[in-house]
DNA sequence: TTAGTCGATGTTATCGATAACAATTCGGTT
DNA sequence: AACCGAATTGTTATCGATAACATCGACTAA
């Protein structure tokens, strides 16, 4: 398909306004000293011609960019999309445009995205910390010419700044919750732990905290099912078959926890009296209409905001710290009605 | 913050491999006839130097791009993120990278995104059809130099191709469902209809189909609350106060329907025996663990795939049709247990 | 009057690649 | 030996902007 003819360039605007290219460039960027009259003429000419600047040329020439690359594992996961909202809300008013890529938790896809995005020489790059990073990705990042920020993970301090919770703290928090209540037959239910490294670290922290108290954590996980409600339900069924006397379960996330909850409800186990259930993320707080799940609330939007603020600081060369640890809060639910 | 020194360019690779810039360019793009030995040397030199092509320069020079711009209203809305998955899955294997922007249903934000993305001269642009489009946006699109595709809306055929359902058909489908069952006290519950034009058209189609059967649709909507479960619940409460004898409700989407459902369950109204409830999207099919809501299923992933396929065709100049209408299916639920 | 200053605009080189075409090499023909 | 065409590699111009500096006139100060 072929679309209209002539592309309007600075030169065309300059000709129409009766000035040089440079003057047009300055007017449109709001740079330099240009008289009011000339500004008016140039703007009018640009409008009349419908001039659209070519960012490829502009950024190439100035070696500056207003684009920020963001790579997250999954767009449909509300967790990441809320982090993204925080990023957008902070960057957009400052004139920076975010470009989003989805890695699907796949290291190769992430690598390709990093390559593609860096090849546009962005003003900054924000990456999710949860994915395993390929050697190629590491070396691309090592040679970057813009600030890089790690999201969602504050334990692994790889780049210029990190914003996210300590997943190890999260694991300990949940362990403490169970131990305080004197629970001892504790299980963990999760999926795709090999892909989602953060979840993996929460799991390990839970396991070792419990081990320190002489408790052996029973983990029911699988790698080939999605980290969603249906899987939570399915694995909980398995768990209850294997060990019907379990009295506490920590789920990888809230979605899986709600799935598990529905099964526990169905077989008549009272939550939290007979069995304690804890999710992760706090997404259920916003979504649930009746069921209030006990969960670890993570300030998702704020993580995005802090990351974006850090980026802005780095772009403007301001001095700064190198990480922001998101506060975690264990929120008690009222789970008597299953979903 | 200042990041390392020298940026590696084609010239550096050329020098190290002992060939000209042009040869390096050809090798790395896989173009032209280059001897195996030269290819080897060039690739090795590029690897050793850690060369990363500068897409700004490349695309500027060739006036070609491998980037595809996608603008959706909301990233956290699972509906759009599933469309996106279909797009990504189709384009990525063909070497096209998608860059995503979030318009938040705001015409000005959408306009700025269109401007920013077009100024990178992408290979194509995919836009959601649901948002009102500003005059500026229209004129930017009119002057585009790449194919443009409209997503999620097949009624308004503005661009080079449209992929999505007919929202008017959806409204009629729901009307038919109610009428077949002899229901006559019918209500509609929705939010932000001014922003989401597609929802608005579904609503109007429902209203006029019912009017044709002599039925007056009662609409309970508001503009200042999110299109989510809590709002569905809240508006359903209002509705039931205003008109307790209502026997059918169509909700803007599944999330709102589930919110409404929980309230109906709470006040003891049996669904679907006493009152019929229909959602929209079919997202509940995947998410619900126990509650199966009656809903209009939209093939979200497939919409993304069809749109991406059309784009690929246009890029390669192949002849083509100008729209794909997504099939809709009204799926019966088993709603006896509220969420 | 004359240099100095400032504001407004223009000139030239450059950013890092690719297109289009030119040049070279080389084995095979006649 | 001279020539030819295919395969390979190089040269030059260009993409559309911006940086850095040059210019020019008007106005001020000595």
Distance between the termini of chain A: 51 Å
User: What is the annotated CATH architecture of the largest domain in chain A?
Assistant: 3-Layer(aba) Sandwich
- As for the number of domains of chain A, it is 3
Query: Oligomeric state of the chains?
Result: homodimer
CATH topology of the largest domain in chain A: Rossmann fold
* CATH secondary-structure class of the largest domain in chain A: Alpha Beta
User: Helix amount of chain A, in percent?
Assistant: 40-55%
- N-to-C SSE string of chain A, H for helix and E for strand: HHHHEHEHEHEEHEHEHEHEHEHEE
Ranges of chain A where pLDDT stays below 50 over 5 or more residues in a row are none
Q: What topology, given as strand order, has the largest sheet of chain A? A: 2-1-3-4-5-11
In short:
Two copies of one chain form a homodimer. Chain A has 13 helices and twelve strands. Chain A is of the alpha/beta class.
Describe the structure.
The structure is a homodimer of 339-residue chains. Chain A has 339 residues and is an alpha/beta fold. Chain A folds into three domains: 10-53, lambda repressor-like DNA-binding domains (434 Repressor (Amino-terminal Domain), Orthogonal Bundle), CATH 1.10.260.40; 67-165 and 300-328, 3-Layer(aba) Sandwich (Rossmann fold); 167-297, Rossmann fold. Helix content of chain A is 45%, strand content 16%. The first copy, chain A, is built from 13 helices and twelve strands. A six-stranded parallel beta sheet of chain A has the order 2-1-3-4-5-11, sandwiched between helices. In chain A, helix 2 (21-29) packs across helix 3 (36-49) and helix 8 (167-180) runs parallel beside helix 9 (197-212). The longest helix of chain A has 16 residues, at 197-212. The first copy, chain A, is elongated. The relative contact order of chain A is 0.11. The mean pLDDT of chain A is 90. At the A-B interface, helix 4, helix 5, strand 2, helix 6 and helix 10 of A face helix 4, helix 5, strand 2, helix 6 and helix 10 of B. The structure holds a DNA duplex (30 and 30 nucleotides).
